[in-house]
Specification:
single chain, alpha/beta, elongated, 5-stranded mixed β-sheet, about 210 residues
Length: about 210
């Protein structure tokens, strides 16, 4: 007499798990009963996550405009004013204070009143007239990496634009750029976003 073959354990396992969502409905029913018995749970399961979602969405702003900027124009010449006008017209920088020393410039950034500090050295115009490269110091608060990165990129772009216009206006070919920005990032030199995002997320979620 021929014996019936027993189905293998693998076949039985596959038959039992043919529908991976078979247990979803009982779980939903159980949670609905729990919420009906305890209405306060609805606040923590629905409204609180939605509140955190909106808070995080509005708190994290990637649009960088009108960065508070302090200026130390040690040259105070027509050429230095022209360069500063480029920063103002870019809409990325907003000059909030004019200082008259290196210490004041650093103090404005440390105090948080300015995110960027621009220093034009006293020899700026003289080096331009002599055909040499004039360096401009850009101090950047790196505590907010997105703002710091935008400030560095825009400052380099402004210096490059000024250099190209000056180079094209001269008949003599230069081997170096007339104006060069020298960014210096404070507090977060590597501009790691985690140094800003993680503490901010903790503050928002708490």
């Amino acid at each position: 007499m021929k014996q019936l073959e027993r189905p293998s354990s693998t076949a039985r396992h596959n038959t039992g798990n043919s529908n991976p969502f078979s247990g979803l409905l009982p779980v939903l029913r159980k949670e609905a009963i729990h919420i009906r018995r305890d209405p306060g749970a609805l606040f923590f399961t629905v409204f609180l996550p939605m509140l955190q979602l909106f808070m995080i969405g509005f708190a994290i702003n990637t649009n960088v405009r009108n960065i508070p900027t302090a200026v130390y124009d040690a040259a105070n010449t027509q050429e230095s004013h022209r360069l500063l006008d480029r920063f103002v017209n870019s809409d990325d920088f907003k000059i909030v204070k004019t200082v008259f020393s290196d210490d004041e410039l650093t103090r404005e950034i440390v105090a948080g009143r300015a995110r960027v500090g621009i220093k034009i050295p006293p020899e700026y115009s003289r080096r331009l007239m002599a055909g040499q490269t004039a360096n401009v110091l850009i101090l950047v608060d790196g505590s907010e990496s997105s703002v710091a990165g935008e400030a560095v990129n825009v400052a380099n772009g402004i210096a490059l634009t000024e250099s190209l216009e000056r180079a094209l206006s001269l008949s003599v070919t230069r081997q170096s750029l007339p104006v060069e920005a020298r960014p210096k990032v404070l507090f977060n030199p590597d501009m790691k976003s985690a140094n800003f995002l993680i503490p901010g997320m903790i503050a928002v979620l708490m």
